[in-house]
């Protein structure tokens, strides 16, 4: 596998990308004085995994969103109205996500839902949006590349920033095949998230007249401490020359660990849901304990640029604000043992979600209701939030198609900073 | 113990009767529960498979497989369902709930068949697999594995409860029998003591005059024998065994 290259989906990053940066995280009060009607807060509802095996996703996504909202509120809010982020924990459980969505829409009367996390929880919330169709219950920027949020009958109710898993898997398969890999296997979560990625890999291979040589599943909620030896053995017997993981960061890291221990040393790739930063952090930790290098031949697809090195204005602003006043979830949601990460792709995605949402709300002016939002959002274009291109929702419900690659080779982990080729 | 020896054949008969009752009712129970539960499970499974098949048509033709996966995952919360998988019209498994992989036994079978089968799968156990075609089989088939072990468990549970009940009745019957035997044997003991008294022997249980009067006034076999003994001359002294 080469160390760096451009690809048609975006920037291809090779080298060291993760180094934990201690961050003085300050909880930021997002709610403002609701006394005067003109300054009534704009309530935004979020449900994510703040606890359990996928907690890092929810917490970091929240930090990114809340950090930008704090900055907007500091500058006077939207038309003088502050943004209030109301978040609940669903522990990546679909039923809890549905309960939270109901609570947000019915009790908290939020303007919209933002940053819901995970394909399965989001897929289960979608019928609720349909039920609230007449009431214009909209969902913005769910943290999933699942197809269900991009196609009918929910395409008018959900708006996405990130590209789909189908696009990510198409890019990954294209990249692997371009480098001579023909025997590709897939390791995936046994639910709709995994199936979405599995379907994408299968389609991408079929389009190239290839077939999956092996597949293995794992149960949702698998912890990093769990053993995935059985899955490794199943895939090893298929003799793949590359493996694509459609998995959470904990399961991805556990699989890579167990695969390397079993001398399955083929390239292993993951999609964006398995945040590169979290996977690498876990592998570094276990690598130090085992005196073994697990950071070899890893390729990650991401839907945001490199948070540490990208020169895009939005990413620079992200770094500046995270340095100044990175937010933390409320104490009730935050696991006491959680150590906030430094710059990472998940909080950057949350930050970009918030930035795009604020750009959209600013265009609506003072007439900020669910109905006006629903009417205006379709067809919004040229929303410049400081990325490579302005973003648009014209004729579709997804703003970005950019897939970024990050490759990890241990030889480059030691000190060399990554280069965002696309930004050069 | 002498009482028990006297009635030992009757007791043995009771034991045998209870054993026959316990065995026959358990066998009947196992058969009935097995038949009924199997029929009900199969019927329920077929209904669920049909519901999934009907719901799958639109999703299969118009939407992403992840939506179908989400649909079938929701049925896994039903305790008796061990697995669900959907095969397309070519027999390829396109959605399933197996972890960590589709069992080799299923991979080896023709997945386009719509006949229900009884399978024993490695790592899963015994299942009844029912099949429902999607769009008359043109779009694929839904396969649903019901836990046959659960039926066995229910049978065990039902039989266990029945055996428990029979055991309680059995023990109660034994206690009642012993009580009745004791009641029946008491006048005979008195008769024996009376006869020994008439023969001039002292067995340590000598009757008072009032007890003798009551014995002679009895209108049963013990009374008749006592009156007969009263009228009969004293028998010669011999080494006697306990008549009971």
Describe the structure.
The complex is a heterodimer of chains A (424) and B (244). By secondary structure, chain A is α/β, with parallel strands linked by helices. Chain A has two domains: 20-163 and 306-400, Rossmann fold (3-Layer(aba) Sandwich), CATH 3.40.50; 165-302, Rossmann fold, CATH 3.40.50. Helices cover 37% and strands 12% of the residues of chain A. Chain A contains eleven helices and twelve strands. Chain A has helices at 55-74, 94-107, 119-131, 165-178, 192-207, 229-237, 249-261, 276-290, 313-325, 345-364, 370-377, and strands at 12-14, 42-48, 83-89, 112-114, 139-140, 158-159, 184-189, 214-218, 242-246, 268-270, 298-302, 404-408. Chain A has a seven-stranded mixed beta sheet with strand order 1-12-11-10-9-7-8, sandwiched between helices. The longest helix of chain A is centred in the first third of the chain and has 20 residues, at 55-74. Chain A is globular, with a radius of gyration of 21 Å. Residues 1-36 and 411-424 of chain A have low confidence and may be disordered. With 244 residues, chain B is α+β, with helices and mostly antiparallel strands. Chain B has two domains: 2-154, Beta-Lactamase, CATH 3.30.450.20; 156-231, no CATH class. In chain B, 60% of the residues lie in helices and 14% in strands. Chain B is built from six helices and five strands; from the N terminus they run ααββαβββααα. Chain B has helices at residues 2-62, 65-75, 104-107, 148-198, 209-217, 221-231, and strands spanning 81-87, 93-96, 117-121, 125-134, 140-147. In chain B, strands 2-1-5-4-3 form a five-stranded antiparallel beta sheet. In chain B, β4 and β5 (140-147) form a beta hairpin. In chain B, α1 (2-62) packs antiparallel against α2 (65-75). The mean pLDDT of chain B is 83. Classes of the chains: A alpha/beta (424), B alpha+beta (244). The interface between A and B is medium-sized, with 26 and 16 residues.
């Amino acid at each position: 596998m080469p160390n760096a290259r451009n690809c048609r989906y975006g920037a291809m990053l090779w080298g060291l990308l993760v180094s934990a940066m201690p961050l003085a995280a300050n909880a930021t009060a997002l709610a403002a004085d609701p006394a005067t009607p003109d300054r009534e807060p704009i309530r935004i509802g979020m449900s994510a995994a703040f606890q359990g095996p996928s907690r890092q996703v929810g917490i970091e996504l929240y930090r990114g969103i809340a950090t930008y909202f704090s900055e907007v509120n500091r500058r006077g809010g939207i038309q003088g109205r502050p943004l209030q982020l109301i978040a609940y924990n669903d522990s990546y459980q679909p039923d809890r996500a549905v309960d939270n969505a109901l609570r947000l829409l019915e009790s908290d009367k939020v303007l919209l839902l933002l940053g819901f996390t995970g394909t399965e929880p989001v897929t289960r919330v979608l019928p609720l949006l349909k039920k609230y169709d007449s009431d214009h219950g909209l969902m913005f920027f769910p943290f999933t590349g699942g197809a269900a949020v991009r196609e009918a009958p929910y395409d008018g109710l959900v708006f996405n920033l990130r590209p789909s898993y189908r696009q990510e898997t198409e890019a990954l398969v294209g990249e692997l095949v371009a480098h001579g890999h023909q025997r590709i296997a897939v390791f995936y979560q046994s639910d709709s998230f995994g199936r979405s990625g599995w379907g994408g890999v299968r389609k991408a291979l079929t389009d190239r007249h290839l077939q999956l040589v092996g597949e293995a599943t794992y149960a949702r909620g698998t912890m990093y401490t769990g053993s995935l030896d059985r899955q490794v053995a199943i895939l090893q017997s298929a003799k793949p020359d590359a493996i694509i993981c459609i998995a959470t960061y904990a399961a991805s890291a556990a699989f890579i660990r167990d695969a390397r221990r079993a001398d399955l040393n083929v390239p292993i790739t993951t999609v964006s849901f398995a945040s590169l930063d979290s996977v690498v952090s876990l592998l570094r930790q276990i690598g130090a304990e085992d005196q073994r290098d697990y950071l070899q031949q890893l390729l990650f697809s991401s839907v945001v640029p490199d948070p540490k090195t990208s020169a895009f204005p939005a990413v620079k602003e992200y770094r500046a604000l995270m340095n100044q006043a990175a937010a933390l979830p409320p104490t009730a949601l935050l696991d006491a043992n959680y150590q906030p990460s430094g710059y990472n792709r998940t909080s950057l995605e949350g930050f970009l979600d918030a930035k795009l949402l604020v750009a959209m709300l600013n265009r609506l002016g003072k007439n900020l209701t669910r109905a006006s939002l629903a009417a205006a959002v379709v067809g919004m274009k040229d929303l410049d939030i400081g990325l490579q291109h302005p973003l648009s929702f014209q004729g579709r419900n997804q703003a970005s198609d950019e897939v970024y690659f990050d490759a990890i080779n241990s030889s480059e982990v030691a000190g060399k900073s990554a280069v965002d080729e696309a930004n050069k | 113990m002498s009482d028990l020896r006297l009635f030992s054949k009757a007791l043995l008969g009771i034991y045998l009767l209870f054993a026959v009752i316990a065995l026959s009712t358990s066998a009947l129970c196992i058969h009935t529960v097995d038949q009924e539960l199997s029929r009900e499970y199969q019927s329920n499974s077929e209904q669920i498979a049909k519901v999934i098949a009907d719901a799958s048509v639109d999703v299969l033709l118009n939407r992403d497989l992840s939506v179908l996966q989400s649909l079938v995952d929701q049925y896994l919360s039903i305790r008796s369902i061990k697995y669900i998988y959907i095969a397309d019209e070519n027999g390829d498994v396109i959605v399933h709930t197996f972890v960590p992989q589709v069992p080799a036994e299923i991979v080896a079978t023709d997945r386009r068949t719509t006949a229900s089968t009884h399978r024993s799968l490695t790592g899963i156990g015994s299942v009844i697999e029912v099949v429902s075609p999607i769009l008359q089989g043109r779009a694929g088939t839904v396969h649903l594995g019901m836990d046959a072990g659960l039926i066995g468990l229910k049978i065990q549970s039902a039989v266990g409860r029945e055996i428990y009940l029979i055991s309680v009745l059995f023990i109660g019957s034994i206690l009642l029998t012993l009580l009745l035997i004791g009641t029946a044997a008491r006048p005979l003991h008195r008769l024996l003591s009376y006869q020994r008294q008439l023969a001039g022997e002292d067995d340590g249980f000598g009757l008072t005059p009032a007890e003798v009067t009551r014995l002679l006034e009895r209108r049963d076999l013990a009374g008749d024998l006592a009156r007969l003994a009263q009228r009969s001359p004293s028998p010669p002294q011999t080494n006697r065994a306990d008549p009971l």
